[in-house]
Amino acid sequence: MLLADRIQSFSALGERLRQLPADTRQQLQGLAANENAWFTGASVSLALAGIQKYLEPTALQRWAGAWPEPARPRLVGVVMAGNIPLVGFHDLLSVLISGHHLAAKLSTQDSALMKWIIAQLTDLDARWAQRIHLVERLNDVDAVIATGSDNTARYFEYYFRTKPHIIRKNRTAVGVVQGSETTEELARLGDDIFSYFGLGCRNVSKIFVPEEFDLRTLPPAWHAYESIAHHHKWANNYEYQKAILLVNQQPFLDTGFSILMESTALVSPISVLYVERYADQADLKSKLEAVAEKIQCVVSARGWYNGSFPFGEAQCPGLTDYADGVDTLKFLSGLA
Hints:
The protein has 336 residues and is of the alpha/beta class. The protein has helices at residues 3-18, 22-35, 41-54, 57-64, 89-97, 112-124, 150-159, 183-194, 232-247, 281-290, 328-334; strands at residues 75-79, 101-105, 132-134, 143-147, 165-168, 172-176, 204-210, 253-254, 259-262, 272-278, 295-300, 309-310.
């Protein structure tokens, strides 16, 4: 398949997603929820919207056309995560749009949606069936892209040490508050915190606020997410974390559906948001630089902080917003 064919196929997939009938969307949401209780209808819809953003024809051409075609397609193995719906799609897209073949080891937590996406591709162009392979083991691949926890990353790095690879570890997102944000801006920060129940590597698990900032101004801005407390898995985590803090007599702010607590730690448990105060801009910069290797992205109101995303856009990455900052297409181009 030529690059033009591949772009046309993925563009057609984007159009198909944009015109997805309501009953098909509902069916997909049911399949996803049956496989993973965290995958609600809202989460599936958000993931599908994110994929549509990737599949704009002009963006695909600009992105993929910047790299040469492989002299010989390689078989690239991808170990996909399953923390949020369709989180492995960007890797699938990267491997296939670059001209290589894909050997995908799907997550058991997110196989139904990925299989549906692959079925749509092969329906649009039957040649994809010869380029996409679902596997349980990546024994005979030429290169590997794997995403997992810090513990599994050590295993991946050892097991695939003789092959070209990208191994991703745990990362998270952080938010930076100035103190002058409007209620609407803080509401968009809530999107970065609570979408996907905070399970994505681009979800904000900690915010940095000025020393004098009053945390009580935050919960009213996040009232749209109060219903999250009705999700049984979130509710269980919320009640468990609150009980631990009460027993240990640790101070915290209870929003009624989540917990805010001050901590120097970076990654908070489900239903908890960590808060750390900074004295000035120099102090803030120092704190962020100290944990830079564990941060996937930073968000701030209107993107005022250098290199950050505007509040509400953490879960709307573009094609070149690579996980862990590693250029996947550059890696794939080098395999040729």
